């Protein structure tokens, strides 16, 4: 029996980085996969024990140069040596990463050993780490075509962003007590919730419910007022796992504009009101939202300009408008349903041709 191909996946921090990587890992069940992450981040909860997790300390670069930068550079150099040792001793044949801080030592260590590196960037505006280190990769797969123009001289390929397998099976049942045939609004704010959006939404919920809608509000676990509104047609949860079931059932979503959330909205054809997180690095969520608004798949508002009357009335008018169906159609048109399969095939091609 031949020994399985060994792949190191470097993905860390948020659902937006981890879910696409997990979706690709699922497609490589014949591979021996190990995971590179950071201590105390979401990967310690989300990565299944089938993928041994190696945690190393790395941080992001601050805007200004100073003593902090010196510490981070020292940490990065140490991390590169740690990953290099791991790759060498473990006889890994390639690295797949979904970007962020963890990808810097992974890319540099793999490059120094001449291993194939497949990088996935899900955002329309690639992150700083991607822009800096992607030139050392074999290929950069992009979640939105718009990203290519920010990566001049880099070999990019448009694959979309992989979604969890729950999004690829039709008719995922929803275990929440929502009556059939009522309009359902789903509110979520990325994998950590969005306190500012939560507050605005709670102010609008009574009038949406009066109009016959039901609301499922995923608040995240950091909102001190999460339980403050009690209403029959209003369900609140800190986090919900069955996003496929929920988004398939939803008539409208109100969401941040993280790449994984947007991809799921496209795959499920869910019309959305997007409120990009205003403090996201380099305002990248605004670039993501732009892909959806220009395709006619969503409406977007800056958080600073969105008031209670505006959000309240927008939702009410959308719920009774044929625009909702049109947006759903446009969302489906931009979905790449087989992104995980495409990425897995790319990984196989680059690793196995060596
Ligand atoms: C604040 C910030 O900078 N966020 C970034 C972060 O992703 P972040 O994780 O914040 O946001 P994303 O929208 O990309 O992903 C959220 C994920 O969490 C899931 N979810 C959410 C709530 C819930 O109750 N259950 C659940 O499963 C969503 O379905 C989605 O899969 O990395 C992404 C990829 O680089 C970026 O595009 C985001 O802009």
Automatic annotation (TrEMBL):
Pathway: Cell wall biogenesis; peptidoglycan biosynthesis. Keywords: Cell cycle, Cell division, Cell membrane, Cell shape, Cell wall biogenesis/degradation, Glycosyltransferase, Membrane, Peptidoglycan synthesis, Transferase. UDP-N-acetyl-alpha-D-glucosamine binds at residues 14-16, 123, 164, 191, 285. One of its GO terms (biological process) is peptidoglycan biosynthetic process. Residues 8-141 form the Glycosyltransferase family 28 N-terminal domain. Cell wall formation. Catalyzes the transfer of a GlcNAc subunit on undecaprenyl-pyrophosphoryl-MurNAc-pentapeptide (lipid intermediate I) to form undecaprenyl-pyrophosphoryl-MurNAc-(pentapeptide)GlcNAc (lipid intermediate II). This is UDP-N-acetylglucosamine--N-acetylmuramyl-(pentapeptide) pyrophosphoryl-undecaprenol N-acetylglucosamine transferase. The gene is murG.
């Amino acid at each position: 029996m031949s020994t399985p191909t060994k792949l190191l996946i470097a993905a860390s921090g948020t659902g937006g980085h981890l879910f696409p990587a997990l979706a690709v890992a699922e497609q490589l069940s014949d591979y021996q996969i190990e995971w590179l992450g950071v201590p105390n981040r979401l990967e310690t909860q989300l990565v299944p024990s089938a993928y041994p997790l190696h945690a190393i300390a790395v941080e992001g670069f601050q805007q200004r140069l100073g003593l902090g930068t010196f510490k981070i550079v020292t940490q990065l150099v140490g991390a590169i040596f740690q990953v290099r040792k791991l790759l060498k001793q473990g006889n890994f044949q390639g690295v797949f990463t979904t970007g962020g801080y963890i990808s810097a030592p992974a890319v540099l260590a793999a490059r120094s050993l001449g291993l194939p590196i497949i990088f996935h960037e899900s955002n329309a505006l690639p992150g700083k780490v991607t822009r800096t280190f992607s030139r050392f990769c074999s290929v950069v797969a992009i979640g939105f075509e718009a990203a290519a123009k920010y990566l001049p001289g880099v070999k990019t390929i448009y694959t979309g962003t992989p979604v969890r397998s729950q999004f690829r099976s039709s008719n995922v049942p929803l275990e929440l007590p929502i009556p059939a045939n009522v309009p359902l609004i789903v509110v979520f704010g990325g994998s950590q919730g969005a306190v500012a959006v939560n507050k605005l939404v709670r102010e609008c919920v009574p009038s949406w419910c009066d109009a016959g809608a039901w609301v499922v509000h995923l608040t995240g676990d950091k909102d001190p007022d999460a339980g403050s509104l009690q209403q029959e047609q209003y369900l609140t949860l800190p986090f919900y796992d069955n996003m496929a079931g929920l988004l398939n059932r939803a008539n409208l979503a109100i969401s941040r504009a993280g790449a994984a959330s947007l991809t799921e909205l496209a795959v499920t054809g869910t019309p959305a009101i997007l409120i990009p997180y205003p403090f996201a690095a380099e305002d990248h969520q605004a670039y993501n939202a732009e892909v959806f608004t220009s395709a006619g798949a969503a409406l977007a508002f800056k958080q600073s300009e969105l008031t209670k009357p505006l959000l309240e009335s927008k939702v009410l008018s959308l719920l009774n408008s044929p625009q909702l169906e049109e947006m759903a159609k446009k969302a489906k048109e931009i979905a790449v349903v087989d992104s995980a399969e495409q990425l897995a095939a790319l990984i196989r091609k680059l690793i196995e041709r060596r």
